[in-house]
Each structure stands twice: as structure tokens, then as C-alpha cells.
Amino acid sequence: MLLTLLSWLFPLAMLWAMLSDALTLEIPNTLSIGLVAGFLCLAMAAGADITHVAAHLGAGLAVLAVGAGLFFARIIGGGDAKLLAAASVWTGFETLPAFLFHMALAGGVLALCILIYRRMPLPAALAASPRWRRLHNPDAGVPYGIAIGLGGLLVFTSLPAFTN
């Protein structure tokens, strides 16, 4: 029962990240920290081998290093880099390629939809909302937490055995 409850932290966090980024263009640091802490609690509750846990943490650190580079190059946001790394702790190296593939596909569709939206005139009904105006601004970022979250949800059932 406890393992099942803990394993559901991942998809719930992915949904929270998607909603938060869609509404505010921000992903709270507490979400990324909570994801890593939740993974560690789940691993302990499941009696996971320390080398297995270390490998998952290594996947997160590797992705964080790449994400930091992309952040400093102004390619992705800091919240996106941290969320991507925290989600990678859950996937580990074994599920990481599938996660990144699904995330990239979702990100491509998301970016295309936002480009189309930004080329259209902003309807008056949406112009009253600061959220829709901000998203319509060509200088604003893309809420890539949506793509990260979708990628995570699509691989959730493939996560290592002790997380399901």
C-alpha cells in the first residue's frame, strides 16, 4: 500500500508541473526537490539496493549537468532544467531514452502550437487575461514543463519495478 502511494507521487508531480508552468510559466523548486525526496522515500520503503539508487541519482545529476549548460546558454529555463533532472532520477538510465524521446515529441508539438497561437491575432476574450497575453508574447518562453510532464506520464508505467 505504501509503495503504491509513493509511486503515485511521480505522475501527480508531473501533472502539477504541467499545470504550474501552463498557468505561471514557472515550476516551483519545491516540486523538483519533492520529486527527488519522494524517489528516495520510495526506494527506502521498497528496500532498493544502494547501487540501484545511486545509478538513478547519477542519471539525475547527468541530466542536471546538461540542463545547467542549456540554461546558461539560454535554451531552457532553470525550472525546466531542475524538473527534467528530478524526473530523470525516477527514470534512471534504463528509462531515460524513452522519457527524453516522448518529451521531445511533446515539446515539438507544444512549440508548434504556441508558434501558431503567437502568429494569430489575440482574441478579445483572451486579451483580458494576463496569462494568455504573456503566452502570446513572442519574447516569452515556452512552458516546456508541459512537455517534460507529458514525457514523464508516458513512461510512468515503464519505470523501474520498485516504483510501480
Mean pLDDT: 94
Rg, Å, rounded: 17 Å
Q: Could you describe the largest sheet, including whether it forms a barrel?
A: none
Number of domains: 1
- Quaternary state of the chains: single chain
Counted beta strands: 0
Strand content: under 5%
Order of helices and strands: HHHHHHHH
Instruction: Figure out the total of helices.
Output: 8
Return the structural class: mainly alpha
Straight-line distance between termini:
11 Å
Low-pLDDT windows of residues: none
List keywords for this structure.
elongated; mainly alpha; 8 helices; 0% strand; 164 residues
Summarize it.
The protein has eight helices and no strands.
How would you describe what is shown here?
The protein is mostly helical. It has one domain (2-163). The protein is built from 8 helices and no strands. Helix 3 crosses helix 5, helix 4 packs across helix 5 and helix 5 crosses helix 8.
Topology:
Elements: H1 2-7, H2 9-24, H3 29-46, H4 50-72, H5 78-119, H6 124-127, H7 130-136, H8 145-155
Helix pairs in contact: 2-3, 2-8, 3-5, 4-5, 5-8
